[in-house]
Amino acid sequence: MPKLKTKSGAKKRFSLTATGKVRAGQAGKRHGMVKRSQKFIRNARGTTILKDCDARIVKLFLHG
User: 26 lies in a domain?
Assistant: First the structure.
């Protein structure tokens, strides 16, 4: 049997931490920054750790 391939979209968007949690970029920052508050923009910098319910699905894509 051939090995299963990792989903290309998932490997570009998500990464795993050393403890196995899923790290992802913050949502809601692509456009429309004028209507967002400065507090939202500041808090949405960098990356975030996904909740367990979402991380379970993403891990299936990352591990093939």
Answer: yes
